[in-house]
Amino acid sequence: MTLSSSDTSAVSRPALSPWRRTLLALAALLGGAGVILGAVAAHKAGAEGLVTASSFLLFHATAIFALNAAPGRRRLLAAAQLAMLIGVILFAGTLTLHILGGIHLQPSPAPWGGTLMILGWVLAAIGIIAA
């Protein structure tokens, strides 16, 4: 069976809001950044700390995608996704600037990023349980 680009009867998907489309596109970019940082860490001497940044980017990109399909209270799940997105950008971004650029931000945004990621996971749990 061959599906043409105009044949949507085989797969039924709800339309994505502009907010969700943007969030998922950003999550995809986080995943790509995670792969890039993992490759840099594997090939650049002294960049082992990028493995942490890479892992956090990949895990949270996947979580943001998964939460988009998770059953639960949509607003809480959206808040969880946003907290994860901002948190991982702050955390991984701070590590990357430090390791690759020698830039030391004071005060460091990394702890705020970590806190937001934790908050995101807690909000996800609450959003799923409260459904």
UniProtKB/TrEMBL annotation:
Keyword vocabulary terms for this entry: Membrane, Transmembrane, Transmembrane helix
Pfam families (alphabetical): DUF423
Tree of life domain: Bacteria
Organism: Faunimonas pinastri
Parts of the chain that traverse the membrane: 23-43, 49-70, 82-104, 110-130
Keyword Calcium: no
UniProt-recorded name of the protein: Uncharacterized membrane protein YgdD, TMEM256/DUF423 family
